[in-house]
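Journal club prep — side note

Before the paper discussion, L.F. wants everyone to see what a predicted structure for a comparable chain looks like in token form. Sequence:
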Amino acid sequence: MPLRGTSRDGAPLSVLIVEDNPGDAELLRVLLDEAEEPTATGDDDEEDGDAPPPLQIAVRWVERLRDARAALADAPADVVLLDLSLPDARGLSTVAQMRAAAPTLPIVVLTGLDDEALAVRAMRAGAQDYLVKGTVTAPGLRRAVRHAVERQRLVDAAQRATAARDVVLGVVAHDLRNPLSTIKMCAAALGAAPEPAQAAELSGVVRNAADWMERIIRDLLDVTAIEAGRLTIDRAPLDPAAVIARAREQFAPLAAERGLTLVADAAPDLPSLNADGERLLQALGNLLGNALKFTPRGGTVWLTATEAPRGVRFAVRDSGPGIAPEHLPHLFDRFWQARETRRAGAGLGLAIAQGIVQAHGGRISVQSSVGEGAEFDFTI
């Protein structure tokens, strides 16, 4: 029967056999080959319509653990069939050493002992399944390999979800603390019955802090929607020049406050777009906010819209310090910030801008050199 769907890119499933007995290794290879023989009925343990497509298997064989490490360094594998008794490793330490060498590699343990307690310990040590030599069948081997890969994928996904949750909790705990503290201090001052002018000033500070908290929460909700592919885009006919004008109106006061020149320009006779104006303004706002934040006083930020072969190209350019080459690949990662600018925000603005652009079918890019500013652009 065909071994079914584990490879993400359609390439053959790479199985590494680590077994010092040539006869046992050859038997495993034969069983895997047998599992690849097509049948008319398909796999009985797959539901109709839900079975992944048939998958070819590429098998490699090594006799020692050190050879396995070298083989994995040369080319990765999708799953390893690991004998617990090797010339250079024995027992559960074999699993531990393999796990240390390849932490995310699914492991199916092979042993001559039908020992349930050992099987449990092997699973706790990091194996995904346990097979007893002499009892392995082609369908059983197929299921063990497939399920090991799927279990490891679930483990990896759970670890990524846990890490993302911890980051979100950290952002909420840190970034909401400052505006919350401001609100508490103002509330205490208002409780002391200040003069009307001072009370009005304190009320304004409270409103600004509340707006700050609201922006953080909105960004967290937006990036969650983007990750889940549920970002709402309400398309309608849109004048690109109107978007540029609104962005300039919104950010001109901030530019003036920071001693910067904001130049906004839309080329004449731009074609109308079928796009979400509020979302595009949000994306441009995130780009402009970053440019204004990191450009030194006396600098300039340019916002432009020009005609492009497949629509309208929007660009935000600044005369700031530029971006180090090693930082460029990480700019659109959520929660990522360069060390020298850490805690300058939640680190979500560029990730959200990218999600908005991608939801419109576009692609955002950045060009920058240290000391020469940066330019972000996208075409809708």
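L.F.'s comment for the group: The radius of gyration is 29 Å. Keep this in mind when we get to the figures.
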